Structures are given as C-alpha cells and as structure tokens.
From TrEMBL:
Keywords: Membrane, Transmembrane, Transmembrane helix. Signal peptide: none annotated. This is PH domain-containing protein. Pfam families: bPH_2 (PF03703). The keyword Transmembrane applies. InterPro entries: UCP026631, YdbS-like_PH. The chain crosses the membrane at residues 12-35, 41-62, 177-201, 221-246, 359-392. The keyword Transmembrane applies. It comes from the Bacteria. Residues 64-142, 257-331, 398-475 form the YdbS-like PH domain.
Amino acid sequence: MMIFKPKRIHPVGMILSFAKMIKSYIIPAIIFFFVGVEETFNIYFIIGAICLVVIIVIVSVLEWLKFTYWIEDGEFRIEHGVIVKKKRYIPIERIQTINTSAGIVQQIFRLVKVQIETAGGGLEAEAVLTAISKNEADEIEQALSAYKNQLPEESIVESEVVDKPEHPTYKIKPRELFVAASTSSGIGVIISAVAAFLSQFEEFIPFEQLLNRFEFLTNASFTLYVILVFLAFFIAWILSIIGVLLKYAFFTVHKVEDDIKISRGIFEKRQISIPIARIQAIRVVQNPLRQLLGYSTVYIESAGGTAGDDGSASTILFPVISKKEVVELLSIYLPSFKVKEEVHSLPKRSMLRYIIRKCLLSLVIIIPLSSLFFPWGLLSVSLLLVGIYWGYQTFNDTGWSVIDNQLQLTYRFVSKSTILVRKNRIQSISHTKNFFQDKKLLRSFKVSIKSGILGKSFSIKDMDADDVEKLLSWYSYSPENKTRH
C-alpha cells in the first residue's frame, strides 16, 4: 500500500483520546467529590459516572474511525470529526519540520507521536498523529521530502527505510548529563509546582491537623529551622536532578544533510527536526554555577513552529558542554556561526550605571527585610555588596563583536548569554537614549530576529554612541559595494 492512500492512526489512538478526555474531567470530578454532600453520592451519581465513561469510550472510538490522513496533490490532508466533519489540507511546501515523540503508552506498543509544523504555524503544531508506527513516520518524512525534491512517486515505497550515510553525531556523556542535572534551575520549578498545588487545594488539605502533628516545632531552635529548610531544598534539588536525568538521557544530535535532528528522553522519547535554513540565531548561556565549572548550554533560535520543549522556538542544541567544545561543535554542526572570545567592551563610564541598577534591585529586598525583621533585618544591608559585585560583573561581561556577516552580543542578567546572529537573519536593529545616557554619549542597542510567533529581541545597555553608529553602518551597508545587504 502506498503512503499516499488514506490511513488511520493505530488503535492505541483510542486509548490516548480516552485518556485525554478523562484528564479534562479529573479536576471537576475531584472538586465535586470534595464539595458534594453525602446525600448526592447515591445510585444516581454512580449511574451518571458510568454513563459518562461509556460516552467518552464511544466518542474515542468514533474519533479514531473518523480520523484519516494521506498525501495527495502536493498536500498533507487530514479529515476528522464525529458530529462536525473537519478537513485540513496543508501544502507540502509550507511544512518545515516533522517532530516525533513517544510517551509511555506509545513506547509500550512501539509507536510514535508525530507533529507536523509549518513556517507560519501558531502555538500548536499544524497537525498531530498521536499513534503511528516508526516506519510510517519515516515514510511520511520520505514522501514529503520526495514531493519537495520533485521525485517520482514510484521512488517512495512502504518498506523499511534505506540505510543512510554516516552523519556527524553528538551523544551526551554521562558526566555532562550529571552536570546538566545537578546545575539546572529545576529546583525552582518544583517548588513553584508544589506551591501552586497547595494553593489550588488548600480548602481540602487538613492543614490544621498537619500543624498539630508538628506543634513541637513551635519551641524548636533556630538551628533546627535552618536544618529543615535545608532538607526541603535538598529534596527539591534531588527531584530536579531526577527530572533532568530522565528528560535529557540519551540526548543525541545528528546533522543529516540540511537538517539538525535532536532526540532525547527515557519515559517520553522525543525527536525534533530543525531545518538549518530556519535557524535565526545561536544562544550560548552560562548560569553562574555552570560558568564556574566551565560549562555552557547552547540553544537554537528558530523561526516559527513549536520546536522547543516548552512550545517556544528556543531549542536546546547541547544541554551542557565545556566552554572549549562550543567552538568545535558549532564548526561541525553549524559552521556559519562562530564564537569570538575577544569582544569590544563597554566604555568605563558605563560601569557606574550598571552598579547602580543592581544596587537598586538589592534595595528592593533590603528595605522590607530591615523594616519587618528589625534589628536583625539590618544585616541584609550586606546585600549591597552583592549588588556592587553583580553590577561590576554584568558590566565586565557585556560586549559586542562583528565577524564578517555575523553579529555577536554578550550580556548578563544572572546568566551570561552570548548571541550569534547572521546579518541576513536580523529583522531590525534600533537604538535609544535617555537624557542621562545622552550626557554620557551612551546608547541602548537592540537587535530583533524572527523567532517563534512574536519574534525575539536582544539588547545591550549603555554602549558607546560611536560603537552603535558602527553597528548601524555595518547592518545598513555591505563593505564591498556600500549597498544595502
């Protein structure tokens, strides 16, 4: 059977559809269970719940029966819908990437989930096939590639994928995976998730009974409180490590012709394919701990679609690599992007402005602590020293450079970021000045690129006015013929 003929997804799709609908009813069911009075939990409630489950099962089966996909007349076509029949025809030339992933259910049945993304796609994928075989996913990719390359249909068969030549491959090392896990910011996510859960269900959690069990802590020493807080953060840190290990295990990068293919994960295996032509910029990030250890994280900023893990256009290319490997790996996978160690620094007259800004942020913490916990809160004044050091390091790490047709910006808020963007990928550049900057001949410089749906901007504050003019001239004119690039 040719791949072009209408097909259904695997019957496992019914299970996934059922689970998705059940998930949407879980929260209302929990709320109803807790707030409902006992008299309502009678035979009618049980019958109603059974009927609801039966309806969901029937709808899941009908959705599976009505969902078909095929390729015809240069379009990827999908028809679905139980009551209202819906059709979606996607021109193949608009299709940018085909991303695959496999959750626990898909892995049990050796299936994958396929997301098809287009250049002008929104926050969600243009089309999703929740459960098909890996061979079918490969055949779809072959068929779309054949259409784009105007190959004859006879060359696309429903057989095993032919062996491809060797391509550059990067696999994360155990040491790098451990560094990525132990130095991630996942601890904040876990604490936020716990806080959000408690806030949503605070009416149903017996806080008073729990507090009574720990009433002995009211007379505990300050040291014991410090130990308990430390243990809480340590547990959150361990959980974040486990989460990152599971997420980025078996992280692999392949360069296949004009695409970068990234795969990773244990419980949820995910594969992302990014055309090199869609890459708008490279972002190299070092949080303070990773910078201290000499490691960086490399991101790809791509145009349109939802390539990133979080639905954004930022995709991790290398979770954690040593600083010296950044240049080497970029030269292999994306040779048009180059990192330059030496950059043009900010003028010294900018340093005081950077320090003042960070000290003002410190005061936001110092003032309430000093007033609420007087006199011990006055110890927080020492945070001004942190602000001074933070401001100086931010000033010291900020700079810019130009390598042929590539602009490099380096700056810091908490993490140090290095942005690499080609001239032909820059959507716009701009500069602003306020009264105080103008007196010091300083400017704020901003570069905008097409990344995701809304785009993305990177900026440096308090650059020398002459340096800003140089960058404006570089962007506006080609050095060879003095014409617009």
